[in-house]
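Researcher: Next entry in the queue.
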Amino acid sequence: MTRLKKLDYISIGGNIGLNVDEKDLTILAELRQNSRIPIREIAERVGMHPNTVFQRIARLEKLKIIRGYRADIDFDKLGYSYCAVVMMKAANRYVNVDNLWREINIPEIQAFYRITGESDWVATVRAKSQREFAAVIGNISSRGFVKTVSHIILGTERDPFAYNPFIKRHRK
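Model: Structure for this entry, 172 residues:
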């Protein structure tokens, strides 16, 4: 039998208030690398019985540490190649976040963050064209934002899905 490559894992410091141990972090690292990996393969890599791995994954889901499983979609290939980061200044900085997001509900917004600094909010926006992007900015501006500053993304140097803090990074 071929021994599967075991990833190197790091531990996280501090008590995060949840009952999460090194084995859980190892399972999370494997799932972050490939959420479709069979439980049997995770079990072999981490040295546990498949039923134990299944129970741990179920517990991590119940604790909402694992919030879901998503497909990594190449939006460029689907024509959504116009991507930008949009900084926004709100008319009222202390607006209710939940209400604001419900009011905005613009499908072209990939992510929406409250931030510090000159701007109050930042969003990543995807559109199929410059014209579609301009319409999104107009839509944002009509929702109580007094200023927007857009930064067009020329290329992705590191994919957000590549983030996996549980795997050791070996420095040369």
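Model: The chain has two domains: 1-72, 76-152.
Researcher: Noted, moving on.
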